[in-house]
Amino acid sequence: MDAKALNASLAYTDALQRATGPGVAGGDAIGAKPDGMSFADLLSDAAEGAVNASRQSEVASVQAAAKQAELVDVISAVTNAELALESVVAVRDRVVTAYQTIMRMPI
């Protein structure tokens, strides 16, 4: 399994645990608990996480330009932002594909 697929899998697992709560088995993961997060909340949190990762990478880049940060920190922040964006894009692509499939269904 390559690194991008592994990171996407870990991000999905983390999001699933936040939505369903800790200790919930995979069989109960399809629907959120009554006091859990909705799908819209889950997507909103993922988008906010991607934006925050992007902001952190920008701050690290500015700090590196001012010689206040190490190159390793900048690379880590940029990589995290890239992975967050790739995860959001992958989810968006799946939602669009699902929507198109539903629209093609005969009534």
Q: What kind of oligomer do you see?
A: single chain
Summarize the amount of helix as a percent range.
over 70%
Instruction: Compute the separation of the termini in Å.
Output: 40 Å
Which overall shape is indicated by the principal axes computed on the Cα atoms? Answer: elongated
Beta-strand residue fraction: under 5%
Order of helices and strands: HHH
Sheet with most strands? none
Protein architecture, described:
The chain has 107 residues and is mainly alpha-helical. The chain has helices at residues 3-20, 39-65, 71-104. It is elongated, with a radius of gyration of 17 Å.
Concise summary:
With 107 residues, the protein is mainly α. It has helices at residues 3-20, 39-65, 71-104. The protein has a domain at 38-107.
Describe how the helices and strands are arranged.
Elements: H1 3-20, H2 39-65, H3 71-104
Which short descriptors sum up this protein?
107 residues; elongated; mainly alpha
